[in-house]
Amino acid sequence: MTAAASIALFNNKGGVGKTTLAYHLAHMLSRHGHTVLAVDLDPQANLTSMCLDESEIEELWDNASELIAQGAAPAALHGTGRVRGGQTIADAVRPILEGTGDIAHVEPVSLKTGLWLLPGSLDLSRFEDKLSTEWFKSFAGDVAAIRTTTAFHRIVEQAARAVDADIILIDVGPNLGAINRAALIGADTVLMPLAADLFSLKGLSNLGPTLREWRGSWQQLILPKVPQGISAPKGSMIPLGYVIMQPEMRLDRPVKAYERWLQRIPWVYSAAVLGESPAADAGDPHRIATLRNYRSLMPLAHDARKPMFDLKAADGALGSTQKYVQTCYREFRGLAENVIKQVAEREQELAGDPAG
Fold it and tell me: What b/e sequence results for 59-83 when a residue is b if at least 16 CB atoms lie within 10 Å of its CB, and e otherwise?
């Protein structure tokens, strides 16, 4: 891959483990020699909270915690050297939001060799109304509106160029609002984490038509009106496939019920997301991976500030738990390999399609 390939992880049904998937996929891709820029465009900033500790987030957001404010914890918690205040995506769009200028430059955070984070902030939610209003003004070729609509793309583009990234992973919130529309327009492909349940299937039914509507509006009505001096995305948003996130099996959720929903996913994905009529014997060609439930490893990983598949005996991963860690590593390695393969195939398809 020459230019950085951007992948948005998105499902408008929350609670399926999307941010956990983004965090671990970013680490696994970097481990296999890719320079990865992880981008937190979820106003809840969950990816940022997974990547950084509390003192770093306080420093980043220029906002001391209540414990520090009350004198119960020392302000000297600051100073890890990895972050600087005012360097989030919310800070980058603040000049647009306040009407004082275009996007501001922000520096990605170096998490480890080959892995960078463009941090999010709760303040990003303030940008929602502005994006919603400017979207419709963009149809008329309003330059200020187009700068707003392309803000995320240009911020991420600058950051990816600064760190020489070859893969961009974009984490977004679970909704179909204006922030996600602007984020997804800037993505080459979309990877969808799913649970095998009614809610994920309903989410797919809503997601597919919405992506096609956004893509059509951008490519046909707005993109032709973008001035040459403004960098704009193609708005490809090509569905890359989906990852099944297995639930914790409970007595009130028997295996048969899980299998029933699992069997319906390929049909709903093909019909709703791809707009195709799937063949009865097509199998499950769009499933990138199935990841089992690793919830028992998450507390250890959180305390150790590392991915689940990097846990060692010193982190509390003892005995059978260490075997579970090894299984986790194999599954995420397979996921990363399949993602790279699918991205390469989509790039070849686009290269052979003059309209792409």
Answer: bbbeebeeebeeeebeeebbeeeeb
The pLDDT tens digits of the residues spanning 186-220 come to 999 999 999 888 888 888 899 999 999 999 999 99
Q: Which two tokens stand for residue 60?
A: 């980043």
When pLDDT is cut at 50, 70 and 90, the band that residue 261 belongs to is confident
- Pull the structure tokens for residue 109: 């955070």
How confident is the model over 17-37, as pLDDT tens digits?
899 999 999 999 999 999 999
The values of phi and psi at residue 250, to 5°, are: -125, 165
User: Taking the CA of residue 299 as centre, how many other CA atoms within 13 Å lie in the half-sphere pointing to its CB?
Assistant: 3
Query: Residue 119 in contact with residue 83, Cβ under 8 Å?
Result: yes
Phi, psi of 157 (to 5 degrees): -60, -45
User: Average pLDDT, stretch 226-230?
Assistant: 95
Side by side, the strands of the sheet bearing 287-291 are 109-112, 115-118, 36-41, 167-172, 5-9, 189-194, 238-245, 287-291
- Output the CA–CA distances (angstroms, integers) from residue 280 to 68, 152, 243, 266, 277, in the order listed: 61, 40, 21, 10, 9
Q: Are 41 and 178 in contact (CB under 8 A)?
A: no
- The pTM for the full model equals 0.91
| Secondary structure of the chain as H, E, C letters | CCCCEEEEECCCCCCCCHHHHHHHHHHHHHHCCCCEEEEEECCCCHHHHHHCCHHHHHHHCCCCCHHHHCCCCCHHHCCCCCCCCCCCHHHHHHHHHHCCCCCCCCCCEEEECCEEEECCCHHHHHHHHHHHHHHHHHCCCCHHHHHHHCHHHHHHHHHHHHHCCCEEEEEECCCCCHHHHHHHHCCCEEEEEECCCHHHHHHHHHHHHHHHHHHHHHHHHHHHHCCCCCCCCCCCCEEEEEEEECCCCECCECHHHHHHHHHHHHHHHHHHHCCCCCCCCCCCCCEEEEECCCHHHHHHHHHHCCCHHHCCHHHCCCCHHHHHHHHHHHHHHHHHHHHHHHHHHHHHHHHCCCCC
